[in-house]
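Collaboration report, partner site 2.

Our partner group contributed sequences for two proteins of shared interest, and the home lab folded both. The records are reproduced in the order in which they were received, starting with the first partner submission.
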Amino acid sequence: MTQASPQTSTRTNAQRKYFGTDGIRGQANTEPMTATTALRVAQAAAFYFKRETHGHHRPKVVIGKDTRLSGYMLEQAMTSGFLSMGMDVTLVGPMPTPAIAQMTRSLRADLGVMISASHNPFQDNGIKLFGADGFKLSDEVELEIEKLIDGDLSQHLAGPEDIGRAKRVDEEGGRYVEFVKASFPKNRSLHGMKIVVDCANGAAYKVAPKVLWELGAQVIPLGVDPNGKNINRNCGATHTTAMQDAVMVHGADLGIALDGDADRLIMCDEKGCRIDGDQVMAAIATDWHEQGKLQRNGVVMTVMSNLGLERYLRTKNIDLIRTNVGDRYVLEKMRKDGFNVGGEQSGHFITLDYGTTGDGLMAALQVLATVQKAQKPASEVLNVFTPAPQILKNIRYSGANPLDTPQIKAYMDDMHKAIEGKGRLLVRKSGTEALIRVMAEGDDATYVEQMVDDICEKLAQ
């Protein structure tokens, strides 16, 4: 059985000034990613969450970041904002996004902050907020905070005796290392496996190689020399050639590539062949299904997932439930209907048995456990279905969204009618960049490619 949500967003983006599909994001030192706005975001969030505690305890926030140069500026600005509102701050430095979600819960903080623009280049940065439960904030809470950002908070500043305290801690990375290791089967190890891990010169550059080594693997680390400007540059989940080449050079069993904040995973097999997120999901879903761990006998993916995955899961009596593009929509569906495994073709994977948000390293451990259990090459274990021909291209634009023009809307209506019965077409604006993503899928590869090229040419005019 396959279910699909409408492809139009259910979020109230028209009312939004700051928050997008994954927090607040933009070019560093340009609105909204300025020190001034970051301070205001912190003050607004502090006021909201202090109000929610009803004064029962002294409120606390955990702040992490990736390795971008602008992280120093935004971290200090947000720290000042929280302190000025009487909130204590724990600074943990470069740490994966899922680590901040986990630490927010384990340290009993009222709020978690991750300063990162994920897979974007170093010039960009962003702010992601987590509640005390470790989950990203709801639309309703984000809208309440938005109202406060541009309001007058001066009357709510803490008195001189109530200003918050800040402390920087280094040992919290060990807490996340143990947390991730706990998701790996207790009766297995990675002994005898040689693994390439590309950390994208990002947030996981310390913890990812450590986790794999402590579980017994021989580790070849890449992308572990961040300089503030090389995050995601020709490395990591968005540029996997370095990982693939290293697997071949070192004769590794497989490769793992994370993005800048380590919430995304792309892998390759021992032949250096890239394995996309749909194949990874097939491996995880099959293994969990066989163990009886897969709740609701299904997985939640987005409309981008390949038709081949849907067909494969059907042979295993596993349901594929589709949502709009974006890991927040996947997570919302999982929590609402009781699923414990979900993800995106692009490499986001959520396993609610262990974590509250996408975790590339944790997902990699689930796949490694499957490969280790099978005692077969990764090329056999992680290529379980034949994908239907699918083409995805991006068109960058400036100014207004071209999809909003009447001419393009009419053209897209015609394209959807043309492919009906032959495949699927999805054209959407990226939630994090000024890009239009064009995807078409069907059994006729030539037809699919021609349609994508025609649409891209039309949008580029």
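Second partner submission, folded after the first:
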Amino acid sequence: MNETYEGPLSELQLLWGNISARPFRAFLSIIAIAIQVILVLMIVGLTSGVVAEWAKRVEGVGADLMVQPPNSSIFFAFSSAVMPEFLTEQIAKLPGVDEVAPTLILMDQKNFVVVYGIDYQRFNALSRGFLYRDGGPFTRPDEALADDVVAQSRGLKVGDTVTLLNHPFRICGIVAHGKGARFFIPLRTAQDIAGAENRVSMFYVRSKGDTEATREQILKLDPLNRVRSMAEYMTLMNSSNLPELKPFIRTMVGVGVIISFLVVLLNMHTLVMERTREIGILKALGCSRLDIVKLFLGETLLLALCGSLAGIGLTFLTQTVLRATTPTLQILITPGWLFAAILLALVGAAAGALYPSLRAASYDPVVALAYE
């Protein structure tokens, strides 16, 4: 009688038959697992995307070194204007320095956007300069430059008025993105708004070639300052290297796994109760305890796989929609996290199905057949 049940084809048909016999419950299980996958991928994708995109913009400024005050954060939005502006000339006179740009970094809390207060000539000289899509540099203290990404997302054009830092600014130019901030205003204006007269947040420095030698020269001016090379900064700006983000990511991943575990546990526990007579029949036909466990775990893993694929598909759909509607929001989904999300879904589902499967396997066939 065992021959009636054994074989991959018969097992697969039995799995599909059991799942298709309860389509609504299977659908809910797939949706729950898909939500877990979406949660994991979106949380990790958003944090990784924002960090990677910010690092890329900082790299695009054109500097080799960044001079910051002691104990400064790698997140410039938390920077304070504590560095004296007169350091500009001292750094510029160093033999290894080609150009230096004092920068005051302000965070517009209302719009959640970083604004750079810059000395236009010095900042523009760090690289090949701003690439203008429209307009030109600011000539008045109440003018601002916007990059093309934020201009597209907000529908801004040259001549429009935008409120930044609770002050109105006229957009005088639209520039290509990738120069650090989304908006740029004159340094003096930024200092007046921040109440930081003759002070800046940091200095961008371009060396003449020997970055490490130039770094040592800058440190001699004030050994307490933090001088990072751009290569060092790019290495730090990785979500897996940021201790502030690790607990958050782990918590969100844990929440996703718990959701999958609880949903599958409840679903499979109810399923075992409903199929008590069926379990008794399978045992009467000669199925072993291991066969019963494999049957229920197989159904669960099949649902988890379907849910994972659905979750990945919905995640990419969400990513596409957000790119079209909110260009400033970057989501980075890597192959490694795709596999990790599937693995987490399978592990969570298998853990949730383990107890109900073992309980089903322990049923006495005589008692199970008499169950109503």
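Feedback sent to the partner group on the second submission included the following. The chain has a mean pLDDT of 81. The chain has two domains: 2-53+245-369, 70-224.
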